[in-house]
Amino acid sequence: MSFEQYVVETLKTVVFPGFVFIFFLSLFYEWFDRKFYARLQNRVGPLYTGFYGLLQPLADFIKLLSKEDIVPKKVDQLLFTMTPLFTLALSIFATLLLPISSNQGVVSFNGDVIVSILILTFICITVFYAGLSTYNRYAVIGAERLFLQMIGYEIPLTLSVVGVALNAQSLLLSDIVLSQERWWYILGPQALGFIVFVFAAQAELERIPFDLPEAEQEIIAGWNIDYSGRRLAMFRLARNIELVFLCGLAATFFLGGPLGPTIEGYTPILYTLYFVIKSLFVLAVLTVVRALFARLRIDQVESFCWKYLLPLALFQFVLVRLIL
Amino acid sequence: MSTFDVPIGPMHPALPEPLLLKLELEGETVVGVDFDVSYMHRGIEKLLETKTYFQGLPLVERICGICNAAHGLCYTLNVEKLYDKEIPPRAQYLRLVVEELSRIHSHLLWLGIAAFEIGFNTMFMYTWRDREAVMDMLEAITGNRVTTEYSQIGGVRRDIPPNLADKLLKTMDIVEERTKYYVKVALTERTIAKRTQGVGYLSPEEAKATCAVGPVLRASGVKNDIRADDPYAAHSDVPFNVITYDTCDVFARIVVRAQELFECVNMIRTALKNLPEGPYRVKLPMKPNAGEALTRVEAPRGELFHYTLSEGALKPYRYKVRTPTLANLGALRAMLTSKGRYVVNIGDVPISYGSIDPCICCTARVHFVDLKKGKSWVWTIDELRERSKRGRLLP
After folding, report:
1. Which pLDDT score, from 0 to 100, does residue B358 have?
2. Predicted TM-score (pTM) of this structure
3. d(Cα B209, Cα B207) in Å, to the nearest integer?
């Protein structure tokens, strides 16, 4: 690898479409989510910091970083320190897989579809340990709920992706993107898969109606009750980046990723624009779901996942098989 | 399976007021519950003994911000019983209008809180937005949004002029239309039904045995409403239905409160249409006759008791208030106890608790503590009576 190639690759990873771009994109997504949610509820939402409150998530992030770092006496020190870092690292790594400025992510290898799903599970497990490490009663209940919930939504999520991979005859994200050049998957039988994916993503991100692990009215803040300051900032940033990742993944699998009409020479910029627009559409769907429902109970979450999501995912799978 | 204790409160996002629920959990299932309400003591009853009857009204209104109209009304009715004077009928009607208006605001507020307890923030925001229309009308009529002090000893403080009555009728149309929409949402939305049906079960027998009051009792299918049983302010002239529902769960309490909103709207319409002419207040002397008086009023949360003992002086000798929340706490324990097929999950606790529309700050409780021995205990009314005969309270 020559020096110039080395510099270009490094810039790709660190600046665009890597860490720095993802960081600001995640803050923008949080703003969009909060603003749209507020407008759906007839509120104004973030308003004063920046243009229409655009800088509010950044201000919140900086504020949390500058807060006192409290470590309760009885926590498991190692896990308490490591889990926020691990969660953040995992979610940042996940976004490198996303095809944003071209039909290929910064990191691309055969089987990255499986890895992207795997990372979601890993994030869930680290968060579970984050809850357990504090030995708080509410946190333990939250962590236990997190795992129970994961057992429910993980299989439908994977099945909905399997349908897409089967149709594209590939386990490579860039192949899946390229196979949608003429026809987006959401317009076919994978529309069912999209629905399953949206609900599973909602559960993965712990948003209403699946926000049981941190249900405010029941167990206060659930697994993150003892986290404050920098550690909480890291968890929140990791959640936002995971939000970008899941919205981007849905766009990649079902909405043709960054593909769209291009002008010679401006392709990366236009691709990025298409990616953002498509994933914002997914985010809007997620936000509407969040605004429309009440929180379910843990047994109801399980029965919803096994009774409705799983059969729907299986049905989609069979439908794809029949058409092929 | 081993159990572990989880305290809910006295500081908790689901509880706006200090109450400690000690839950014993087996996984996610509640197997035991105990609670403590003695975190708030404001000494209002004692303070009332130091004020004249006319000065006491603003203090009484501050027992509870939300059902202040009921408290003020109960106080004035109670004191008026000590005089031998007829209260003008126009005042009776105006009292009814403001009381029902505050019931609408309380029930809408509760609907929002109930939605919030099950994580349905959108409905919370919407109901509170529409409650503002009612609050604006309360402000236009009484001059204040929350502590209205509308009902005065001898009548009411202000008249409702015809133009304001028209405006109020228009607001009632808005409230009715919006309430219809909320009732539709609450009755058809699947996640609400899932979270409330079969939750917080209170059978009619249990409701009667634990002396539940108000919407909680009516939601268990027991027809009981002080406005109908013991009319106090023009209720005998303004017809209304006592709403009951028979599923005995949180869902029933939502239905009962929502249907009561329509009754309130209709009562206000009828009262404004038949508003009698005449004065709206009579002057009463500062000192009432000696004697005692007991009044019951149907507050938005249920039956409210006020008792006074007068020696014919400027100030009451003794004043006693029993708020509906205290009466409903026994029912709350019955709701949170798992029985047979009905299992209480920890997720059901906030909404079951919220369904009694709690207002802990209004609630008083006698609790004895012996600091030297480090013991605390509670005495029943019979024991207290026995001890009062002997003239000593401590053992």
Report:
1. 79
2. 0.86
3. 6
* Tally of CB atoms within 10 A around B86: 8
Question: At residue A29, does pLDDT exceed 90?
Answer: yes
- On average, the pLDDT of chain A sits at 88
Distance from CA of A2 to the nearest CA of B (A): 56
| Overall domain count for chain B | 1
ipTM over 0.85: no
pLDDT at A234: 92
User: Is residue B128 situated within a structural domain?
Assistant: yes
Instruction: Report the residue of A34, A296, A297 to disrupt the B interface, i.e. the one with the largest count of B CBs within 10 Å.
Output: A297
Partner residue facing A217 (CB), from B4, B122, B350? B350
With CB atoms and an 8 Å threshold, state whether B345 touches A298.
Answer: yes
Give contacts of B 119-158 with A, CB under 8 A: 119-123, 125-126, 129
pLDDT of residue B368: 62
A141 in contact with chain B, both atoms CB, cutoff 8 A? yes
User: Taking CB atoms and an 8 Å cut-off, how many pairs form between chains A and B?
Assistant: 83
> Is residue B192 in some structural domain?
yes
The whole-angstrom separation of Cα A317 and Cα A163 is: 5
Q: Note down the domain range covering B210.
A: 44-323
Spans of chain B below 50 pLDDT: 395
A295:B13 CB<8 A:
no
Lowest mean pLDDT among A59-68, A81-90, B354-363: B354-363
Structural domain spans, chain A: 71-323
Contact B237, B274 (CB under 8 A): yes
| pLDDT at res. B182 | 87
Percentage of chain A surpassing pLDDT 70? 100
d(CA B157, CA B167): 19
In a domain, B230, yes or no: yes
Q: Is residue B202 part of a domain?
A: yes
Distance, CA of A95 to CA of A114 (rounded, Å): 14
Distance from CA of A137 to the nearest CA of B (A): 7
Give the CATH number, domain containing residue B272.
Answer: 1.10.645.10
- Residue B32's pLDDT is 83
Closest Cβ opposite residue B121 in set A41, A218, A300: A41
What are the chain A neighbours of B6 within 8 Å (beta carbons)?
137-138, 141
Each residue of B235-252: pLDDT tens digit?
888 888 888 888 888 889
Residue type, B48: L
Question: Residue B37: its pLDDT value, please?
Answer: 76
pLDDT tens, position by position, A152-183:
898 999 988 888 888 888 888 888 888 888 77
**Tell me, what's the pLDDT at B362?**
63
